[in-house]
Amino acid sequence: MPKTLPIIVLVGLMGAGKSRVGRELARLMGVPFVDADHEIEKSAGMTIPDIFAEFGEAEFRKGELKVMQRLLQGAPIVLASGGGAFIQPAVRTAIKKHAVSVWLKADLETLVARTRRTAHRPLLQGVDRAQKLRELMDARYPVYAEADITLVTDQQSPQTMARRIRRELAQQGLLPAGDMPRGTAVRTADKRGENT
Fold it and tell me: How many distinct structural domains can be found in the chain?
């Protein structure tokens, strides 16, 4: 069992609930919540859509890598990563070294419904939303599957998801003893979440 809380990185596609679940999980665990996209915008001094428009996705990914590496060197936080962050091998390696990754998995119908609520998604501008999300699912889900923990978010509230993540972290022995939810049975597990 670790002596301190881990950095927890939420990964998944846009609309999976990383920000909403992340805020609730951070509150539950008593650590700060950090949204990587907001940190990138602060660092660049411009919005993500503006970064994409002016510099392109490749430059955005370079900045994203720097911000993620910085955030992963600090104190325990709950970090909502951008949808493409975990796809970058260098980001994935840094997360595996310094944090516990949790994939918030959602089906296409859920993602389409949730992403309709916002207009600031550069990858969904001017395209068929469902088709683009399906393409992203096909390309990214096999990589997201490398996360330490996978939980399905369909039909789940952020509060329910936060409790499920905390319970899973505890069951895998990834929380300090004082942070274990009552009645949690700890099973022996390696960091990948596989029973040993």
Answer: 1
